[in-house]
Amino acid sequence: MIDFTLWDIVRNLLLAARWTVVLSLIAFVGGATLGFVLTVLRLSGTKWLRYPINIYVDIFQGTPLLMQMFLAFFGAAALGFNVSAWAAASVALILFTSAFLCDIWRGCVEAVPKGQWQASRVLGMNYLETMRHVILPQALRLSVPPTVGFSVQVIKGTALASVIGFVELTRAGTMLNNATFAPFTIFALVALFYFALCYPLSCYSRHLERQLYDAGLR
Amino acid sequence: MTLVCVKDLHKSFGELEVLKGVDLDVASGEVVAIIGRSGSGKSTLLRCLNQLEQHDGGTIEIAGQHLDAGAMTPNDLSRNVGMVFQSFNLFPHKTVGDNVMLAPTVVRGVDKTVAERLAREVLDKVGMLEKFDAYPAQLSGGQQQRVAIARALAMNPKVLLCDEVTSALDPELVGEVLRVLEALAKEGMTLILVTHEMKFAHDVADRVVFMHQGRIHEQGPPRTLFEHPETSELKQFISAIL
Question: Domains (ranges, CATH) in chain A?
């Protein structure tokens, strides 16, 4: 049997942490883009757009991310599509993230006072002009703290990609444990890695929240 | 010349009938003050004129533009009708100047330099030019309301609707806003104001309209109306507020 030094373990976890970061970024950028489009469509008021989006959000908020991963991976295979763990994990995380961000951002848009809509309306601005110039700039400021806060959930969510064979931090930890039989050391290190990724974001989110509070917007 | 012509206006919110047939003509350059108890339909009448509320029956005609019940609001209604709110509703993320310039540039497509000249002109008129680069949160309530008036004026409306524009202000700030409105009235701007400032209605309005239970109950020149009210409801209202 090969002997693993502590450095070997840390080095391997560091290498795997890259993929946790990359997968988080894919999920976040993809989910934010899709979530933004969904938010604007959902708020436009047409019920033919609003209802399907509500159902979409409810489904992804109401089922475990783990099941979404399984369905994206095994479900696609059952339908005859041969998807990689990469693709399945990315798709599942993007959909999951978009549903949550769509809901968070809807709340932020609705938190902008009604009078702003009315003032824009009497000045002759239409829906899109009002959104662009009046509502979104204000909603955006409100949305930054909860959005950064939610990105922490996305990072931790990537751990579930390990169950479909995607080698990220958690999966690497499991593999190292199989080779070294030192679960406490390894999973403590894995947890530490996640903490190092998430804690700064949590702090940043709290800092932004305080800034909003000081600006008198909350 | 009749600028605003309202005939048999009806509006309900669910079961509650708020306007039960209102007829009102306003001439160009006229200053009309609408008074009455809360719940009498004053604000709803005003909000129907710019279609923030869609009326259920009757007709509204403003500067030749017909607003029919159940029809789409014409996109260019804002060309004719401006409005100032009780709660100012300035855009908090924009400077005073940008607040005023936004609608002319976005809605009218006015060039940025032209819009800025226009903004400076209307802000000067309300005495707020020196706050061009300030944000609304840095201003007093009275100053914010003056900016809101300037923002409405920048769209060059034919009639300006004022919905209790001094009700949210500290007493010592009411005067500066009323002085601006008085100056506008002198310039010949058509004003329709819902107000609780009876002295202002008395001194500045050409006509006072008393609303009661969704109808115009009594109207006339302010002196006649305040000093010789005919109906018992108006007598009661006047004695209650004086």
Answer: 11-214 (1.10.3720.10)
